[in-house]
Design goal:
CATH topology of the largest domain: Rossmann fold
Number of domains: 3
Helix content: 40-55%
Strand content: 5-15%
Largest sheet: 5 strands, parallel
Structural class: alpha/beta
Shape: globular
Order of helices and strands: HHHEHEHEHEEEHEHHHHHHHEEH
Oligomer: single chain
Number of strands: 9
Distance between the termini: 26 Å
CATH superfamily of the largest domain: P-loop containing nucleotide triphosphate hydrolases
Bound molecules: adenosine-5'-triphosphate, magnesium ion
């Protein structure tokens, strides 16, 4: 199985942190989400309490974690960060919740990975701020209510469909979809990152990188850094020609697609006559997991309009055929 295109994961979380916006006006785009979240925060501050629980969902690298950090910093609150995979047992959740400083933002990333058992334990904590702890076993077992410090849960997920209905309904502060970014927003992000990194990039270069960034801020920053490295090594200025030259080496084309994306499109065209192709058959022909195909390759190809999802399977569009040539 080949790995996902490396521009998707970027240079990793550590590098994300360096360019992560810490002020609202550095957080580009997503205007409606920002406005709504700020109302929830400002109202809570005026009431002197904590906002209700918030849920952010959208593809990888579009700013969910960044937004969670902004929520906490605007509230002047501590942020405790964990993830759905890390909370395995009831005791893990109980330990986290009971140890929170009052007024903490609890960030649970990949919240769709919580088990049903943990979810059920979380419900009373979200609704009325207590945990139901079962003491003893068998007929003599009894449940005690343990009051918890006040907290706001901020959940994030790339897979909204995998979140259970009951859990979804408990985000009283709102559920917000973060979408792919426009070219213009990406250019703003790249311009700011370039100035932070001390990279002297021409407007053409910024436009060029934006077009190859898969509508995703993390990819944009990652590509900018790779182009910077290339320019350093080759001692050439960062202009559009250099970006194109570097991207040939990186295996990234004018749309930001990699050989894996092209393999997907070619498999759909050659192996399935352009579809409709079922996701399992398609994935198997690519020697990939259906999950990877659906969540790594398809979102951006759909966004480009190169493929479509139909009830009978995936279809290569005329735009997709044109791209393949
Ligand atoms: N709206 C934005 N404005 C400026 N930069 C952004 C924005 N959103 C994201 N970024 C940049 O992209 C990087 C990745 O964003 P972030 O880690 O918040 O994405 P995510 O949605 O949490 O991704 P994942 O699903 O992989 O956890 C950030 O460190 C930041 O540099
Ligand atoms: Mg994140």
């Amino acid at each position: 199985m080949s790995s996902a295109p490396d521009t998707l994961s970027g240079d990793g979380q550590l590098q994300d942190a360096a360019l992560r916006p810490t002020e609202w006006d550095e957080y580009v785009g997503q205007a409606q989400v920002k406005a709504n979240v700020r109302v929830a925060i400002d109202a809570a501050k005026k009431r002197g309490g904590m906002p209700e629980h918030l849920l952010f969902y959208g593809p990888p690298g579009v700013g969910k974690t960044t937004l969670a950090y902004l929520v906490a910093s605007t509230l002047g609150a501590n942020l405790k960060s964990t993830s759905g995979v890390a909370i395995e047992r009831a005791a893990d959740l109980a330990a986290i919740l009971t140890n929170l400083e009052p007024g903490t933002v609890l960030f649970i990333d990949e919240i769709h990975r919580l088990s049903r058992k943990i979810e059920e334990l979380l419900y009373p904590a979200l609704e009325s701020g207590h945990l139901d702890i079962v003491l003893g076993k068998g007929p003599s077992a009894r449940t005690v209510e343990l009051a918890l410090p006040a907290f706001t849960l901020v959940g994030a997920t790339t897979r909204m469909a995998e979140l259970s209905g009951p859990l979804r309904s408990r985000f009283g502060g709102g559920t917000f979809q973060l979408d792919f970014y426009s070219d213009r927003d990406l250019r703003d992000i790249i311009r700011r990152s370039a100035s932070r990194l001390g990279v002297d990039a021409t407007d053409d270069a910024i436009e060029n990188i934006a077009a190859k960034s898969r509508a995703t801020p993390r990819v944009a920053n990652s590509l900018l850094k790779r182009v910077r490295d290339y320019s350093l090594v080759h001692e050439k200025p960062v202009d559009a020609a250099l970006c194109d030259e570097a991207c040939i080496l990186f295996g990234i084309d004018a749309h930001g697609l990699t050989k894996d994306d092209r393999r997907y499109l070619e498999t759909l065209r050659e192996g399935f006559r352009g579809g409709p192709a079922g996701i399992r058959a398609l994935a198997s022909a690519m020697h990939e997991e259906p999950d990877t195909v659906e969540h790594v390759y398809e979102p951006y190809l759909l966004r480009l309009g190169f493929i479509e999802r139909s009830p009978r399977g995936r279809i290569l569009t005329s735009k997709g055929r044109e791209y393949l040539g």
